[in-house]
Amino acid sequence: MPPRKDPKAFLQGAHAKGSGRSRHGINGNRVTGTLSDRTKVNYRKAYELFEALCELRGKKDPVKWAYDMETLKDFVHEVTWGIDGHYGEEAPSENSVKIVWKNFTAYVRQHHGAIPLDITGSVTNYLEQEALPERGAKPYKRKRKYATKHHCVHLGRQLWEADWHEYKTPGRRVRLWGQTLGYAFSSSRQGEILESSARPDSGRGVYCKNINFGIFRNELGEAEIGLLFKVDAKGMTRTPQKHPEHLLYEGFRARPLLLNPILPLLAMCLAWGLFRDYITDNEILDIQAPPEGEVYLIEWSAPNAPLYKGWNGEMQTASSFDSDRRALGKRAGYIDPPTVHDYRAEGLVQIDRNYSETQRKKHAGHRSSRTHHDYYAPNNDTDGQAAYLGDPVRTHVVDVFRNLKLERNPDLWQSLPAEKQYALKKTEGYLTIEKRLQNLGTSKAAGKERNKERNALYGERRRLIDKELRKCQKEQHRQPPSKDALDSTYYMGHYRARFARASRMMPERQRLAINIFEVATLRSKVGREVLRDMIALCSQKHEIETRLGLEPNKCHCGHLHSLEVDDSANQRPSRCVYPAILTVCLTELTGWVLRPASYEWMHIYICHKRHLVELQVFAEFCFLCDKWFTNMRDWEEHCKSHLHGSLEVPVQCDPLIYGGTLVAPGLCPGCIGDETLPATEQMKQYTRHDLWKDHVSSCFKQRVVKGQHGPDDIVGCTHPDTRCKQLSVSLLQLRFHFQDVHCTEVDTEVDHVRDSRGTKGVKRPLPRTDCKESEGNHTTKRSRRSLHAPDLMAKPLPEKQYVFINEIERMKSGLQGQVMQLDKL
């Protein structure tokens, strides 16, 4: 032990080491704690509310009135009534109001001096005793819910088996599921794996260097993939030695591949080139098991890179994941979808059952035992009946009823049904908004002001629809399914049938919808197929790469598809929308590698049809079967096989655009059932949404409205589906049936109110997909992405020929002066 230093010698040694070089900050000023940028913003927002109140009350000096008790009571009273409730509650919770009050007092204390305690105490008592009870604010927080394996499977089934949502890139689906399993199995907080929205630009999250990814020898003596990752837990940034570490592995027992956390992680790492020495899945899976007790570590190609990247290449934000998580939960039937903390709560319940208290605290990153007792432990984790009777304890019953904490309706409405929409459009609030929108068209206000007001009205209308939708979802009746119950997709088929209608265009997703639910190991044949399909999804840039029957090799002119394009070189988050004819000159002028806005299925359709007509006189393409026909008789027989033979007639009759590609044509539910028409007319295909809608409305008027039927007469559906033939309803109910079941919104004299913006979750009106010119006096606004050519529906092309002129050299000179503007877009 070294000898004790003399105090003077100690100080002299400190000076000699450099203590006197910088004495910055050594003064009599008070030192406050470090605040995050988000906290500063919240402080400022609360004070801005107070400033607005003072201006409204005619009090010119907000700093002076910040110490006035009457003004502060007025402030908290207005805040109490101004905050909206969450989770379906009209009033906010007490904590939501108190946070604003605390943020305000903190801002005043930081910038102008603390408000005396007798004033803040009195205002707080007024808030708790008068303002909050008068508002009806709840004194408790959101009730603890538990996302069990049962709920995780429901989300997985929606994501892989029936999901109609289109992500910007297919790999985002794989990433979302990998993150969901990672949160569920590690019980991590949301800001421990991804960058928390409360700490923007902090870069906190899991990086490749925080993960030990390797191969070990399992209990059966076989090679198995596992990883150990460390998280920066809440309150432990300054104590990295205490950071929780979590394990994920592939497992040696056969389980549903859906619940294998290594599958999505391994697929992402291979597709995105995160491994330094391995490229393919076979190279990883063929690694032999190491000796007992050892691990073969797989090195990262970029250790400092985040495991989950955002669009800017930095750590993905938790808010981005949270929006995807919540939207998926809504589509899966949850009014209040499971949160990350719900997964964490269920994970800690299971950890507490199987491990000691110390192990549970280490796993959760808790410092106190009271945290689990007060916030995570369930209130129904015991079997009192078995304990009283002396029977074996049944944890299964406890777990099953804990699932009820998260309510789910598999048939949850994703948009208002037609009848509810009709009733909403008749309300005073909706009609007022529509009238203001109509008056805005004749307003003399400036363009910017008019657009601003119009957008505000659109937002008000969307909020009105969303509020009505939430109300209807809560009131939606649900019964246990029966054998005689009709398929839910029959009633609300626009959503739940979209993936079934488009899946044939996405072979990887079509296989995953079956294989991922198989009980197998990762190294089995089906496990390897699932892994390769996930890798393919992560490597793709679009949901539909090629439409069946309209492959790129069917373009005979070489006009639009002669360019080898790759948008991975672009550093812009959005896709380029320049016409394909400009790609050569823009690439030469700017160095960008451009890609057309979407897969040019329409051009290939036009080009190949023109080619076949020149050879065979007749050509028609069945968008339902993805087959070409060059004989009129064969085409007619094929249409008959849809109507009366082995091929089906779809219940949903709207033109379906998925992944920027037409996967199903528009059909007329009235003409399909009219046996007096030729089969080719019954099965007439519409590739343009506006012409299809006009025809369906006209057909409905001729067959029903202008026929022998009055508004109160009982009518039936004209669609040949057996379920539709049993329908006997009023004229108005038939309209609702057309919209809900056949995805056909008809315009009749019954109701002239038209919602051109659509409702929540409905893409209406769909973009133009046909190249047919306007007929008669009918005029439509041309889409910038549309091609325009003569009518190509079920008849030979006209003899008019088109000559494509190469004007790239001329356009180069015209674009020289515009190149400087491109970087500003």
TrEMBL record:
<feature type="domain" description="Zinc finger double-stranded RNA binding">
    <location>
        <begin position="621"/>
        <end position="644"/>
    </location>
</feature>
<keyword id="KW-0862">Zinc</keyword>
<dbReference type="Pfam" id="PF11917">
    <property type="entry name" value="DUF3435"/>
</dbReference>
<dbReference type="InterPro" id="IPR021842">
    <property type="entry name" value="DUF3435"/>
</dbReference>
<keyword id="KW-0479">Metal-binding</keyword>
<dbReference type="InterPro" id="IPR022755">
    <property type="entry name" value="Znf_C2H2_jaz"/>
</dbReference>
<feature type="region of interest" description="Disordered">
    <location>
        <begin position="1"/>
        <end position="28"/>
    </location>
</feature>
<feature type="compositionally biased region" description="Basic and acidic residues">
    <location>
        <begin position="767"/>
        <end position="778"/>
    </location>
</feature>
<dbReference type="Pfam" id="PF12171">
    <property type="entry name" value="zf-C2H2_jaz"/>
</dbReference>
<keyword id="KW-0863">Zinc-finger</keyword>
<dbReference type="GO" id="GO:0008270">
    <property type="term" value="F:zinc ion binding"/>
</dbReference>
<feature type="region of interest" description="Disordered">
    <location>
        <begin position="754"/>
        <end position="789"/>
    </location>
</feature>
<protein>
    <recommendedName>
        <fullName>Zinc finger double-stranded RNA binding domain-containing protein</fullName>
    </recommendedName>
</protein>
